[in-house]
Amino acid sequence: MSAVKKLLVLDLGMQSLRLAEFTTLTKGGIQLQRATKRDFILDPALDATRPQQIKIALQDILKEWKIKGGDLALVLPAHTVFTKVAPLDVPPGSVDQIGAVISFEAQHNIPFPLEEVVWDYVDMGQTPSGAVDVVFIAVKLDLLEELCKSINSTGVRIISISASLLALYDAFRHAYPEESPSSTTLLLDIGSRTTNLVISSPESFFARSIPSGGLAVTTTIAKDMHLGLEETEHLKIAHGTVGLGAGFAPPEDPVEANLARLTRQALLKTQADISRSVSFYRSNLGGSEPSHIVVTGGMASMPYLAEFLTEKFLKETSFFEPLRGISVSKTAAHFVETNPNNLGELVGGALVLTDGNQTKADLLPPSLVGKRELKKRLPLLIAAAAMLLLALGAWYGYALSAAATTRAETDKINAAIGDENHLASQIDALSSKLAVTHKTATDLLSLIEFRDVYPSIIADLNARIPKRFLWITEIQPVSDLPANGTNVRYGSVPPLIKAISVKGLYLDNPREAGVIDDFVTALQSSDIFAVEEKEKSKIIIQRGSPNGQLWAYPYSLIIPLRNSVAPLP
User: Fold this and answer.
1) Segment 48-53 long-range contacts (CB within 8 Å, at least 24 positions apart)
2) Sheet containing strand 205-210, strands side by side
3) What is the block-wise mean pLDDT of the chain (569 residues), using blocks of 10 residues?
4) Per-residue pLDDT reduced to its tens digit, 229-245
C-alpha cells in the first residue's frame, strides 16, 4: 500500500456521504487535499435505494473534481457492519494458534451463516486476564457486493474496505499517540442512526455500536411536534440544543425550550446504553474506567452536548481532533471548518497511505478479491501468453501442412453428415406423430378419470343431505372467479374446479333453516369436500327466511373440494 501516492476516501453515513482526497508528502506524512459532503434522503424507508443514491452523488463529485478514476478506500457505516469484541482463551503470542480456532469461534460469534457474509478478525492484543482480545467484523455479502458495484461503476477502484469503528480507532491512535498507550479514553461518535463507542486502553480494546443517535432525537421531536422527518431535522439543526436539566434556565424561546427538553429526553436513553456498555467492558474484559471522553459525529455539533455528557458521566469531555499531524490544503480548509466533527472516519481510511498505522481488516468482497489477485498475476499471465504465442507459431507450420489432409477428410465427413441428417428428419417426423398419439391417450385417460369423479361428488352429496325437508335443485362446478367483475381469459389450459355450487329449497319445518346447517355439518366428515366448522358462514351463501307465506324457501351453498378437479374437455 505504501506505493499509493494519492487516495480517495469515501465515508458512508446513514444521512450523508463524505469524500476526501489525500496525498502523501515528499517529506513524510499525508495531506488532505479537498473534501466534500452530500446528504441523502432522510427517510429510513428509502434505504433500499441507498446504493443508487451513493452512485449518483459520487458521480456528481467526481465530475465536479474532474476525476475519472483512482484508488478509493471505503469506510462502511456502523449500522451495516456487525462488530463484536470477544476475548479468546488461547495461548498468547502465537498467530498460528489463534488462526487454528478462529473459524470455530467465528461461527459462534457472528450471528449469520459465514457463507452469507464477508468477515475478518483483528488481534488487538492481550487482556488483563490473559485472553487474546479479538475483534470480529462481518458484512452481509449481498449488501457489500451491491455497494461495491455502485461505487465501481463510477470509475474508481476500491482497494480497501474498513468499518467506521476501526477507522475511528485508527484515527484516534494517529492523532493522540501520547494518550493511546498510557490512559483509557472513551471515544463517542454520535451519528445519525448509531452511536459508536470505542474505548482505547493500554489494557484492552473495546468497541460497540449502539442503535441510537441523531435520528432518534429527530424522531422524538417529530412525534411530539407532529412534523415530518426532513422538516424536523432542519429545525433541530437550526435551533436545537441539549437541555441542561434542573438548575439551569431553559431558552427563552418556547420552541427552543421544547427542542432542548425533547433532545435531552432522547439522549438519556443513549446515555444509559453507553453506561451499560462501559460496565460490560469493565466486568467482562477487565478494563479500567475511562478517564475522559472524546466526542465526535454529527450530533457533536449540537450546543451543550459536551456539557450533558460531562454532567452524566462526571468526566472531562472534549471534541475529537483527528487532523492532528495531518496537513490541510487551502482548498480543504472550508470543509474542515464547516464539518469539524465528521473527519475521524476519513482520516482512519486515509491511513492506508501510511505503513503500520491502520488496523488490518480485509473486507473486500469476492468480486474485488478476484480482481486484486488478477492484477498481481498479470505479469505472469503476460509471460505465459507470450510463450503460448510462440508455441502457436511453431504449430502453425504443422497446421498448414495438415490442412489439405484435413479438408479431404472433411469432405468425407460432410457426406456422412448429409446421410445422417436425412435419418434425423425421419426420426423427427416419427417423434411428432408419437407426441400426437401420447396427447390423445392422455385425454382418453382423463375422460376415464372424470367418469368416476363427478358421480362420486353427486353420490357424496346424496349420502349427506338430510332425509327430510331439504332437496337440491341445481349443482354447478365453480373455479377461480374473476377479480373486480372483469372477464378472465384462460389460455389453452382451462381452470381447475375448486368448489361445487349447490342450490335448492328447504321445506317449512320445525327446525326451519337449521336443516341447512345440518347438511353443512354432515359434509364435515366428507372425504371429497373440505368443510370446517369455522368456515360454515362462508359456505352458506343464501339462506331464505321463513315468512309463513310459502311452503319452501331457497338456499345456496359454495362447497370447496379437498382436491381440485379438472373440468370436462
Assistant:
1) 51/146, 51/147, 51/149, 51/150, 52/150
2) 205-210, 195-200, 185-190, 292-296, 316-319
3) 74 88 88 91 73 92 91 90 83 62 85 90 77 87 91 91 90 82 84 87 82 88 89 88 83 89 91 91 83 90 90 90 90 91 90 76 81 65 83 83 85 89 90 90 75 84 88 87 45 74 89 87 87 83 84 91 77
4) 888 888 988 888 998 87
Contact (Cβ atoms closer than 8 angstroms) between residue 135 and residue 208: no
341-344 CB contacts, 8 Å cutoff, 24+ apart: 341/295, 341/296, 341/297, 341/298, 341/300, 341/301, 342/11, 342/13, 342/18, 342/37, 342/296, 342/297, 342/298, 343/171, 343/296, 344/167, 344/168, 344/171, 344/172, 344/189, 344/296, 344/320
Over residues 412-447, the pLDDT tens digits come to: 898 889 889 989 988 999 999 999 998 888 777 777
CA–CA distance, 530 with 542 (Å, rounded to integer):
19
Where are the extended beta strands (E) located within 113-260?
Answer: 117-126, 132-140, 156-163, 185-190, 195-200, 205-210
* Tally: H helices and E strands in the chain: 13, 18
- Other C-beta atoms within 10 Å of 404: how many? 9
Contact 554, 495 (CB under 8 A): no
Is the separation of the CB atoms in 347 and 175 below 8 Å? Answer: yes
- Cα–Cα distances (Å) from 549 to 468, 473, 513, 552, in that order, read 20, 21, 15, 9
| C-alpha cell belonging to residue 500 | 361445487
Query: What are the contacts of 321-324 at 24+ separation with CB within 8 A?
Result: 321/175, 322/171, 322/172, 322/174, 322/175, 322/296, 322/346, 322/347, 322/348, 323/32, 323/175, 323/347, 324/174, 324/175, 324/176
SS3 402: helix
Helix (H, G, I), strand (E, B) or coil at 241: coil
For 262, the enclosing helix (H) or strand (E) is helix 254-284
| 3 state SS of 24 | strand
The grid cell for 466 is 338430510
The single residue listed with the C-alpha cell 464539518 is 339
Torsion sign across C-alpha atoms 209, 210, 214, 219:
positive
Spatial separation of the C-alpha atoms in residues 81 and 162, rounded to whole Å? 9
DSSP codes joined into one string, 363-375: ---HHHHHHHHHH
The full set of domains in the chain, from first to last, is: 180-321 (3.30.420.40), 465-565 (no CATH)
Q: Which residues contact 436 (CB under 8 A, 6 or more apart)?
A: none
Cell of 321: 481532533
**pTM for this entry:** 0.63
Q: Which helix (H) or strand (E) holds 347?
A: helix 344-350
